[in-house]
Amino acid sequence: MPRKVILAGGTGTMGVILQQHFVERGDEVIVLTRGRHGTLPSVRQVNWDGRTEGPWTKELDGADVVINLAGRSVDCRYTAKNKALILNSRVLATRALGNALSKCAKPPALWINMSSATVYRHAEDRAMDEQTGESGNDFSPQVVLAWEKEFFAHQRAGVRQVAVRSAMVFSPRGGAFPRFAQLTRVGLGGHHGSGKQFVSWVHETDVAQFFQWLIDTPKAKGIINLAAPNPLPETELMTALRKRIKPLFHINTPTWLLPMGAIMLRTETELVLKSRRVIPNRALQLGFTFRHPTIHTALDELCNAPTHQP
Ligand SMILES: NC(=O)c1ccc[n+]([C@@H]2O[C@H](COP(=O)([O-])OP(=O)(O)OC[C@H]3O[C@@H](n4cnc5c(N)ncnc54)[C@H](OP(=O)(O)O)[C@@H]3O)[C@@H](O)[C@H]2O)c1
């Protein structure tokens, strides 16, 4: 049966993946956006500011699913201003949705809020899952904890809530994968730092299937990791990428050089140096099956895919 699905902040990398998935299923898709962006033709855009209630709130009444993807990109310099934007854009958008949901006569039965696998500490020693994982103390994990705290503060009878602690989504449409591929093409596809840091990732096909599975699985609630079950050391990821992209040469980037590169690329070294060794224990226990559990088939597909935006 077609559903009414609201994608708050659904214009970014994950939003485009989910727009396509739900449109192909025949669902009615509404994107809450602060501006006018490219969306698929059958997707309806409704404006919001990501923080205050307004006419957009009536879209939630009678909807089946709300998925909140809103948040300022973390791929930037962590200045005081950007840090405030990263935190506030997530917490305030979540709060606005929670307040709007509390006033619905017929609230959606499912509210999924994005969270992030970066909540776990730097981990080369062992894998982090929902039960035994330890959270980090620095800026990014603290943002995620504040985001989840706000989300779970808005409980309402009849509304199932899931916080999705997602690893890096590997998609040709944007985010981390095109950047790794670009670095490899220009000869910077060796390992970064020691290369021993783990990379947790998930293929875009599994992202779409995972959200559909959450909708179809009433037992799925609370905090759930979204990451392929086989995170791998960065040096192995870069080797696998080079095998497919076949650059003429590659150099490794030592830890001391990375801060300079990060300034030039207007990003932070954390995004490549933090060891994210995250596994999706709850999803596996609840029966989710990954189409791309290991990096090899995922890269075969990604390296052959055209880049495309709606
Ligand atoms: N992609 C990943 O690998 C990944 C991994 C883990 C977690 N996540 C999290 O999942 C969410 C979605 O990821 P994504 O890759 O789709 O992110 P994205 O490409 O950066 O898109 C996020 C959307 O949030 C909206 N937004 C940006 N700044 C905002 C602000 N100040 N207030 C309200 N809305 C704002 C934008 O929509 P409008 O401009 O249309 O309003 C934007 O399209 C993000 O919160 C991200 O942190 C992503």
Helix content: 25-40%
Number of strands: 11
Assign the CATH topology. Answer: Rossmann fold
Q: How is the biggest beta sheet arranged?
A: 7 strands, parallel
Name the beta content range.
15-25%
Trace the largest sheet across and list its strands.
Answer: 3-2-1-4-5-6-10
Q: What Rg do the Cα atoms give?
A: 19 Å
Number of helical segments with 4 or more residues: 10
Please identify which CATH superfamily we are dealing with.
NAD(P)-binding Rossmann-like Domain
Describe the structure.
This protein has a single domain (4-304), classed as NAD(P)-binding Rossmann-like Domain (Rossmann fold). With 310 residues, it is an alpha/beta fold. It has helices at residues 13-25, 80-102, 139-152, 176-185, 204-216, 234-245, 258-264, 270-273, 281-285, 295-304; strands at 4-8, 28-33, 44-47, 65-68, 110-116, 160-166, 168-170, 198-199, 201-203, 222-226, 232-233. It has a seven-stranded parallel beta sheet, sandwiched between helices. 42% of the residues are buried. Helix 1 (13-25) crosses helix 5 (204-216), helix 4 packs across helix 6 and helix 6 (234-245) packs parallel to helix 10. It is globular. Helix content is 36%, strand content 15%. NADP nicotinamide-adenine-dinucleotide phosphate is lined by residues 9, 11-15, 33-35, 37, 50, 69-74, 85, 89, 93, 114, 116, 166, 168-169, 175-176.
What's the short story on this structure?
This protein has 310 residues and is an alpha/beta fold. The chain has helices at residues 13-25, 80-102, 139-152, 176-185, 204-216, 234-245, 258-264, 270-273, 281-285, 295-304, and strands at 4-8, 28-33, 44-47, 65-68, 110-116, 160-166, 168-170, 198-199, 201-203, 222-226, 232-233.
